[in-house]
Amino acid sequence: MNVRAIRFLLLLSTLAISGAGALVSGALAQDKGTLHPKPLPLPPLANPDDPRLAAKQLFGRKMRPTGGPPYVIGFYARGCIAGAEALPVTGATWQVMRLSRNRNWAHPAMVALLERVSAKARREAGWPGLLIGDMAQPRGGPMLSGHASHQIGLDADVWLTPMPNRLLSRNEREEMSAVMMVRRDRLDIDPRAWTPSHLSVIRAAAREPSVERIFVNAAIKKALCREAKGDRRWLSKVRPMYGHDYHFHIRIKCPPGSPQCESQRPPQDKEGCSAHDLAYWFSDAVLHPRPPKVPPKPKPPITLSQLPADCRQVLAAPDARQ
Ligand SMILES: [Zn+2]
Q1: Mean pLDDT of 151-158
Q2: Average of pLDDT values for 117-134?
Q3: Which of 225, 211, 304 is nearest to 264 (CA)?
Q4: How far apart are the CA of 249 and the centre of ligand 1, in A?
Q5: Which of 18, 70, 171, 253 could form a disulfide with 212 if both were Cys (CB 3.0 to 4.6 A apart)?
């Protein structure tokens, strides 16, 4: 065991003593949530120590984070987080959607970023605020539905629908749908839905220094490339991705204080706006994928042993105090 790991274990055991212990399919932005039946908390597992058990079954059952300082372990699509913080479900310039999923958890740096960007959405785009989709589970890790990433508290989905100028009810937050931004033929944005203010919101997020990448549908990237005026350096952070036609995805860099966080290569300095850059995304194979003759075997889910070793301690640590 290395020094870092030992220090981390000590950290968690201190928490225990002090009692301070807490890509993309399925749960899309437009998928409705539910009030009844209550999907969380889930019933206990019969064999929680079975090594073949999917890690999402364990992380999906944690309702509270661990206490103590925030500590990110692993990579965006394979890891977990200790000491996560909740984004309050209602703020001056944001409202969290799909509360039944309990996914409004993240590293405090992400919570602060969303508060900042939502204030900028009001100032710079004239939106009343932002509707916030999935962030991470209380202890991160793989999720029972949707999202390959969102595992270490450094990813967040933001709706491309402005927050209404009123408090949404719990029920509305489950039932309301986001607006589709992409035209039927998938080659461009839908001009009835897309406005210059959408560019302002995405730009406000991309200009934040801690933001590593922003994922949007290729049709949205194309529109941003066409419409961005003045300083266009922020465009290099905005990357085309499958889906992301109702929401965009903000990913931040590994924050200080988390040596076990694995960062991603920073994006190249270019805008990514040439026909060549976008060709793949508008190819026939991507726009109209033909179903394979033999359906591929579903990938086995990630088990606990496939996550960084210290994620076991994160699961075992006591809940943070309320
Ligand atoms: Zn996402």
Answers
A1: 98
A2: 98
A3: 211
A4: 5
A5: 253
